[in-house]
Amino acid sequence: MPVNDNESTETRHIKIFDTTLRDGEQSPGASMNLNEKLEVAQMLVELGVDVIEAGFPIASPGDFEAVREIAQTVRGATICGLARCAEKDIDRAWEALKGAPQPRIHVFLATSAIHRQFKLKMTTDEIVERAIAGVTRAANVCDDVEFSPEDAARTEPDFLCRVVEAAITAGATTINIPDTVGYTTPTEFHARIKMLIDRVPNIDKAVISVHCHDDLGMAVANSLAGVQAGAGQVECTINGIGERAGNCSLEEVVMALRTRSDFYKVDTRINTQRLVPASRLVSSTTGMSVQRNKAIVGRNAFAHESGIHQDGMLKEPTTYEIIRPEDVGFAKTDLVLGKHSGRAALADRARQLGFQLTGEQLQVVFERFKALADKKKEIYDGDITALIQQQISGN
Ligand code: KIV
Ligand code: ZN
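# zinc ion complex -> structure
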C-alpha cells in the first residue's frame, strides 16, 4: 500500500464510499422510500462515487427491497449491503446484492472492550472466530468483501491488529476502521491507521478505509488524517447526515482533498459541480435542512457581506474565496448587501441592475441604503432599485 505522509510525489486515488442510504438514513427522521432511494442512488452515480452502501438488507423488508432494486437497476458504481457477522444477515445481503455487476458485502463486528463486555458478551477469541466465519461466508459468494471492526478507534491496538490480520486472511479486500462514536482525534487516528500499516503483515492485500462519526465535530478532520496516514477509501454521507451528530460529510472531505491536493497528493472521481444539487436533493428528500453556514453547500458558503470583503472580491475573487462557487455547483458568488457592505458592492449591484450612477448619486443612495440596512436583515434588489429610482427622480 502506498503510504502518503506528504513525502510521496505520486497522486493516489481515494475511493469515495457513500453511505447516505445506510448510515445516513439511520439519522432520526431521515428515512426514505424506495423511489427516493433510487433517485438518490442515481444522483450518487452522477456525482461519481465509487461505492454506494445501499442499505442493511436484514434490517427490514423495505431495506431489502431498496438494496435489491438499486443492485438491479443502478449502474456505474459498486453496490454494497451491510451485514452483521451472522449467517442469516450475510445470506440476506447477498440475496439483495447478487443482481449488481459489482456487488460488495460489508460485514461488521464490534471489537472494543466496551462492546465485547456489555453488548456482545464475547471473549476476544470468540470475536476473532466470528469475524473469520463472517468474512469467509461472504467471500464464498462475493469477491468484494469489506470488514469493519466496529468501534475500532476504541479497540486495544494489539487486538485490533489481530482481528484485521485474521479478516484479511479470511478474504476481506477492504478493511474499514470506524470511529463509531466520534471519539478519536486527528493525531490519534492518524497514528492508528499508521500502526495498522506498520504492524499487520498482510495489510497490503486490502484497501484501508476510514469511517468517522461527528460527535466531537471532527469527522472530516479525522478522515483526512486517515487519508494522510495511508487510507485509500473514505466513508461519508451527503450533508454529513447519520447517526447522532452524523458522519463525515462527503462534500467537505472531497473539497478538502481537492483544494489541498498540494498537501494530500490524492484525487477522487467526484464530479464536484454536482455537490450542491446532491446536497439539495438529499435535504429535500429527507426533510433535513442544511444550515446556512455549512461549508461547501450552505447558502452562505460563498456569500460575502462586509464591505472590505466585497471590495476585495470585486477586485480579485481569490482574496476571500479558496473555491470557485461554480466548481461545487453554485451559480456564482453572492455579494449580499447588508449593513456591513461598502460602496463598491453597491455600485456593482447598481450596474448589474442597469443603473449608471454618478459619484454624487452613489453617495446619496449609499447613505439611504445604510439607513435601511440598519432596519432590515436582508436588502433585496427591489430595495436597491427603489432607492436608486427615488434618487434619480429627485425625492
Ligand atoms: O459507525 C460504525 O461503526 C458503522 C459500522 C457498521 C461500519 O456504521
Ligand atoms: Zn457509522
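# post-check
The radius of gyration is 25 Å.
The pocket of 3-methyl-2-oxobutanoic acid (ligand 1) is lined by residues 23, 108, 148, 150, 176, 178, 180, 211, 213 (CB under 6 Å).
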